[in-house]
Design goal:
Elements (H helix, E strand, L loop, with lengths): L1 H36 L61 H13 L1 E4 L5 E4 L6 H8 L4 E2 L7 E2 L5 H15 L5 H12 L7 H8 L7
Helix pairs in contact: 1-2, 1-4, 1-5, 2-4, 4-5
Length: 213
């Protein structure tokens, strides 16, 4: 009786571990699909100059200059980790609780990000797609699509094999301490997302850690 209970508990723990890994892979897959299908962003629209006369300045106050020095911009976008999309218990320097934060982190790993530096100027952080060598692996071509102020991206669409390589690369960068074997397992699960009976998938699921007591 005790053996049956222990066997049942091990089975439940194995299913839970398999489910957790499936969620991670599914999230990476979802972001990869969005990145692969995203349209090229249109160029920013020019803002026409205002024709309104300057407002009257109250006595004793300096008039607001028509133009302001670039070191002190009127509007500045600052990315702060761990804010509106985070839980109150989340480490702001390592946000992992929220699905929205995880999706953003994966998107930044793939496509890079443009942040605002302390001097108010944009700072471009490259992603996996910003490397010509990676683009060769993902698309078969080293060609990049570049825009000023944004990270470079692969110019060609990804192949199916390239998407699996991207999943493995993202998994290894996102999961702290992930081994190359675990990353390759994530790629295999991605490639066989509609074929759970594949022998490799079954071997991966059976090899997931379970409790020994």
């Amino acid at each position: 009786m005790a053996n049956n209970s222990r066997r049942k508990r091990h089975r439940i723990l194995a299913l839970a571990a398999a489910g957790a890994m499936a969620v991670v892979v599914a999230l990476i897959v979802a972001v990869v699909v969005v990145v692969v299908r995203r349209p090229e962003a249109p160029p920013p629209l020019a803002v026409p100059p205002t024709s309104e006369p300057p407002a009257a300045v109250p006595p004793g106050k300096k008039p607001r200059p028509e133009f302001q020095d670039a070191s002190c911009p009127d509007v500045s976008m600052i990315a702060i980790p761990g804010t509106w999309e985070s839980s109150v218990h989340q480490d702001p320097f390592n946000p992992v609780d929220s699905i929205a934060v995880a999706a953003r982190a994966i998107n930044n790993i793939i496509g890079g990000a443009t942040l605002t530096g302390s001097n108010g100027r944009p700072v471009v952080q490259p992603g996996l797609e910003s490397s010509p060598a990676n683009c060769v692996r993902y698309t078969g071509s080293a060609a990049l699509r570049s825009r000023a102020g944004y990270p470079s991206l692969c110019a060609r669409p990804m192949t199916q094999a390239g998407q699996a390589l991207l999943v493995a690369d993202v998994y290894q960068k996102w999961i702290v301490g992930a081994t190359p074997t675990a990353a390759q397992n994530a790629a295999v699960l991605f490639q066989n997302s509609t074929n759970p009976g594949d022998p490799r998938v079954q071997a991966i699921l059976k090899g997931l850690p379970t409790a020994t007591h």
